[in-house]
Amino acid sequence: MSKLMKFAGLGALGASLFASLPAWAQEATAETAEAATDAAALVPYVYEKSVNNGDVAWMSIATVLVLLMTVPGLALFYGGLVRTKNMLSMLTQVFAISAVVCIIWVVYGYSLAFSYGGSMDTYVGGFSKMFLAGVDATTLVPTFTNGVWLPEYTFIAFQMTFAMITPALIVGAFAERFKFSSLLVFSVLWVTFIYFPMAHMVWWWGGPDFLAEQQTLKLIAEAAGDTAGAEAAAANLAANGLLWNWGALDFAGGTVVHINAGIAGLVGCILLGKRIGYGKESMAPHSLTMTMIGGALLWVGWFGFNAGSNLEANSITSLAIVNTFVATAGAGVAWMFAEWMLKGRPSLLGLVSGVVTGLVAVTPAAGFAGPMGALCLGLFAGVACFFFVAYVKNMFQLDDSLDVFGIHGLGGIIGAIATGILVNPALGGAGVPDYLSVPGTLQVAAYDGAFMITAQIKAVLFTIAFSGIGSFILFKLVDLTMGLRVKEEIEREGLDVAEHGERAYNM
Asked: Is the separation of the CB atoms in 7 and 141 below 8 Å?
């Protein structure tokens, strides 16, 4: 296995943009197939690595924007939604998880997510980059353009922010009743056994230059009748994450972040049970002002989340920015009007919830859908998630405190499946990229709707099962050893004073 293979998959959250490895992607057109087998093309692929300062600058900004989403964005969004007596505890939980996962990421998380995993490579990376071994200011990782690379430190920092926010999203599902010590232990276990493998399975690939190199070697070996050489090159081409090899598309984390966190939150809130007084006492948000500020910061930071996932400053980055505007606005407006029609009044909470729903839904489609497709996605997701939060959740008496599943889980599922439809160029989508038909150049594969939708549904079902079963095991493990829920008297008093000895407000 070449040294470059160890960097396979370092393509970031937008890695799925180039899910060109399935066989169907090699058959884009008769012309490209013929071009790939021309005698003139049957020479080893040689490339140089170049770093674009503009890409580095953009990715540095995008990284800081994603941090802004988490602290203070998510912390304020969640904090405003809980009761006054739990405001400080919510801020502390989000802030603490972010800091702990930041450390875990550089110790072993990055290695498990984005290094070669040997016999387990389909599912998880290895330990070759623990403590960032072998990484320095000179090491590079591939982007999505042949010959264009990024400093590895830039990629590490960008991916770190995704790892930080994902477990922090979960805490909203069981807000106001989870022990802080148990939450920290659960978060460490969850990112280790759930998040890092999911990131690897969805985003681990070889990069465009590696694909071109191995595809060319495969063609040369086939032309020469070298069966062993062709098989070796084919094996290298298939050395990717499980969902990647299925052909699933996930531009910026619909499966890895939102469905993953949403399902974990759903499992957690069911296992912990309802808050004391749920359905009998008022549990209204104590500060919708804080929630609106947090929601606005989430929208701003999400441009780093979505557009940064392209890893380069180019036209796809621009597309992701436009989609992050229109899908978000569409979902916010759709939720607002649905609530207005069915409940009589448009609420700020509904509007902000709709905005976050749109951000979630467009995440997997940000660089694939066209703007009109993204707008339709936002409108649909806004209505669907409103209906779940307003009616279905109450029907099942589900105390998902801050609607983590109703927004992130359901919104992620809708967005992930819709990505397989909206990528279609006939609907204004960018198309499924193909690096293999003409090695060294980017082609657009012929759209196969049945294949794409099936691949997306498979990815969604796998994520639900993997996160659901894995999270259940981890919750039970922590519950049996430490206990998950605070005592009744602590819950009634509020977690701020009982768990942290402080109050959010001293007035």
From this structure: yes
For 447-488, the pLDDT digits (tens) are 999 999 999 999 999 999 999 999 999 999 999 999 999 999
Per-position DSSP letters for 337-378, written without gaps between them: HHHHHHHSS--HHHHHHHHHHHHHHHGGGTTTS-HHHHHHHH
- Dihedral angle, C-alpha 335, 337, 339, 343, nearest 10 °: 180
Using left for φ > 0, alpha for ψ between -120 and 50, and beta otherwise, residue 147 falls in left
**What digits encode the pLDDT tens for the residues 69-82?**
999 999 999 999 99
The parent domain of residue 276 ranges over 4-495
Q: What is the mean pLDDT of the chain?
A: 92
190 and 474 in contact (C-beta within 8 Å)? yes
CA–chain centroid gap for 364, Å, is: 7
**Percent of the chain whose predicted confidence (pLDDT) is above 90:** 91
362: left (phi over 0), alpha (psi -120 to 50) or beta: alpha
CB-based contact 376:429 (threshold 8 Å): no
Q: Does 237 reside within a domain?
A: yes
Query: Which candidate, 485, 73, 77, places its Cα nearest to that of 298?
Result: 73
Count of the separate structural domains present in the chain: 1
Of the candidates 470, 101, 75, the residue with the CA atom closest to the CA atom of residue 264: 470
Do residues 148 and 50 lie in contact, with contact meaning Cβ atoms separated by under 8 Å? yes
Rounded distance between C-alpha atoms, residue 180 and residue 221, angstroms: 58
Q: 207 near 8, Cβ under 8 Å?
A: yes
Q: How many CA atoms lie within 13 A of 388 on its CB side?
A: 22
Q: pLDDT of 98-138, one tens digit each?
A: 999 999 999 999 999 999 999 999 999 999 999 999 999 99
CA angle 265, 194, 321 (to 5 degrees): 75
Residue 505 lies in a domain: no
Q: Is residue 503 a part of any domain in this protein? A: no
What is the distance between the alpha carbons of residues 431 and 15, in angstroms, rounded to a whole number? 14
Distance of alpha carbon 212 from the chain centroid: 27
Rounded to a whole number of angstroms, the CA Rg of the chain reads: 23
Q: What pLDDT shows up at residue 15?
A: 37
Strand 50-51, strand 148-151: pairing = parallel
Q: What does pTM read for this prediction? A: 0.91
Residue 480, in any domain of the structure: yes
By CB atoms closer than 10 A (0-12, 13-18, 19+), residue 353 is buried
SS3 10: coil
Q: What is the pLDDT of residue 42?
A: 82
Say if residues 176 and 126 touch (Cβ distance below 8 Å): no
What is the CATH number for 51? 1.10.3430.10
